[in-house]
Request: fold
Amino acid sequence: MTAGVRLVVLGKQGAGKGTQCVRLSHRYAVPHISTGDMLRAAVREQTELGLKAKTLMDSGQLLPDELIMGVVAERLGERDARTRGFLLDGFPRTIGQAEMLESTVAEAPLDCVIDLEVPTELVMNRLVSRRVCTACGAIYSTSQPPIHGWVCDNCGGEVIQRKDDTADAIMVRLQAYEKETRPLIEFYRDRGLLETIDGSEDPDSVFAVTVAIIKKRQADQSR
Ligand code: ADP
Reply:
C-alpha cells in the first residue's frame, strides 16, 4: 500500500489548494480536510457552527480561532487521519491556528508545508470565473465547465458560484490572507518545513512538482 502523507497546503485564495488537494488525496489515500468545505457543509445543515459562521463567510472574513480549532482537532482525531495522514487545506491561516496544530501533531509531525505561490492578478481572474461542486468540492470555471450543464462530472452534485466569490468578498479575503496568513510562510520556513511551488503553472505540472517534493521529503526522513 502507498505511504500516506501529512501535509499543510498554503496559498492565497485561488492559488489552487483545493484542486491539488483533491488529486493528492487520491494519490496518497488520505483525507482532504478543507475547513472551507466543512464550514460550508455546516452552513447548509444549519448546525450551531454553521449559523455562527454564515455571515462572516459571506463577507469574506475569518472565523475566530476558537471556533475553527475544535472542528479541526476533532477531524484530525478520526481514524483515517491518525493512521494515514491528512491534507490540510485552508487551515491553519493564523499564527494562533498554526501553534495549535503544532501541538496537536507533536507526536507525528508534518512531512512538509507546501506554499502555492501565485500572483494576485492571476488569482483574481481565477476566482471570478470559479465554479464549485457543492457536494464534493470539485473545481470548475466558466471556461472549463462540467460536461453536462452545471452537474459535477465526478459525483453528479450541483456546480455553483460560491457566495463569497464576488469582487468585494474576494478583496476582503485577500486582505485577510496578507495580514493573517502570509506570516505563516516565515513560521514554517523557520521550522524547516516550507516548500514553495509556482502555482501559476497548469494543474498537472503543479501536481507533478508537488509529488516529487513529497517523495524527496519522505526519503530524507526515512534515512
Ligand atoms: P478561500 O480561502 O478561498 O477564501 P475557503 O473555502 O478556504 O475559501 O474558506 C471560506 C471561508 O471559510 C473563509 O473566508 C472564512 O470565512 C472561513 N474559514 C475557512 N477556514 C478558516 C480558518 N482556518 N480560520 C478561519 N476562518 C476560516
In short: The chain is about 50% helix and 15% strand.
